[in-house]
Write a structure and sequence with these properties.
The protein has six helices and seven strands. With about 325 residues, the chain is an alpha+beta fold. It has a five-stranded mixed β-sheet. Strands 1-3 form a two-stranded antiparallel ribbon. The protein is elongated and about 175 Å long.
């Protein structure tokens, strides 16, 4: 019957079972479509929420960036202000220090002039009148009187040397420094060649590297320390001086001379202090004090110690 109807109508007719099956499939497709539309709506909602959250986070990030930039700018402004105040303080301190240095130089010039004229005038008079008196007495002068006059003149000359040393010591404390990087070995070799070329004590230099210092002043300090070592090494058998480094920041001048007593330990760098009697070694107690003064200006630690049968003068750079 269905076949006849299909033939008459020209359309394929379904059986009730087939129609029911297709209807079920259509209902399933509608359910899937509804579910898909629901899922799509849900996803769109999630996307909108994520987009909104992302926009909010972006706004927060931009706001945080602006706050950070403002904070950094504020800190930069504060640092600039602090730096300006510091520079102003440094300028004030520098001007104050320059004024103090100028005042000290003025006082030193005054003192030097006073020593050169007011102090030396009596010394010259003492020396001159002692000479005139000895010349007037001639051969008629008692031996004791001639000896006394010679002693007066000798002490007058010594007083002149002490005054020169005092002026130089004061000058070393305030004169400007020209600090530059210098080769230690070249500097020490020059000192030895200029001042100890004919020294009876052999001097061995075992140093390398570079230190920062005022070259003329440190050459003076090295000269005084080496001279001290040479002077006290002459009396011993097989004297020798070694200049070496334990490390790049420590320089030692070592001699095997007679050394000094521990009783002089606290005064060894004092001006005019002698660690031996006038009849034992020449000198006025100036060299070590001068070397220590120069080292101190460079913030270099200077020590002098007796280690066994050796005397060790140690120069140590500051540890920053």
């Amino acid at each position: 019957m269905l076949k006849l109807l299909s033939f008459v109508s020209g359309q394929r007719l379904l059986t009730p079972e087939q129609a029911a099956s297709q209807l079920l499939e259509l209902e399933n497709l509608r359910d899937k479509q509804i579910a898909l539309e629901s899922l799509t709506t849900k996803l769109r909602g999630e996307i909108k929420r994520e987009q909104a959250l992302a926009r909010e986070q972006l706004i927060n990030i931009q706001k945080a960036q602006q706050e950070l930039i403002a904070l950094q700018q504020s800190e930069i402004d504060s640092l600039k202000e602090a730096l300006g105040q510091l520079n102003q303080s440094v300028d004030i301190e520098t001007q104050r220090q320059l004024k103090e240095n100028n005042d000290l130089l003025t006082q030193l010039n005054w003192l030097s002039g006073t020593i050169a004229h007011d102090f030396r005038a009596p010394l010259r008079a003492i020396d001159a009148y002692s000479f005139f008196l000895a010349d007037d007495l001639g051969d008629n002068a008692p031996a004791e009187a001639s000896k006394s006059l010679e002693e007066i003149r000798r002490n007058g000359k010594r007083m002149g040397l002490l005054l020169d040393a005092l002026i130089e010591y004061l000058r070393l404390g305030i004169c400007p420094l020209n600090i530059q990087l210098h080769d230690l070995n070249e500097t020490l070799v020059q000192v030895v060649n200029e001042h100890f070329d004919f020294s009876p004590v052999p001097i061995e230099i075992q140093v390398q590297g570079k230190w920062r210092f005022d070259r003329p002043m440190m050459m003076r300090a090295f000269k005084e320390l080496i001279d001290n070592a040479v002077k006290f090494s002459k009396p011993v058998e097989s004297p020798k001086i070694i200049i070496r480094q334990n490390n790049p920041s420590n320089l030692e001048i070592i001699d095997n001379g007679v050394g000094f007593s521990d009783s002089h330990d606290a005064q060894k760098f004092q001006l005019f202090h002698r660690m031996h009697g006038n009849d034992e070694f020449e000198g006025e107690g100036i060299g070590l004090a001068t070397a220590e003064r120069i080292a101190s200006r460079h913030h270099i630690s200077l020590s002098l110690n007796r280690v066994g049968a050796q005397t060790v003068a140690s120069l140590r750079l500051p540890q920053y």
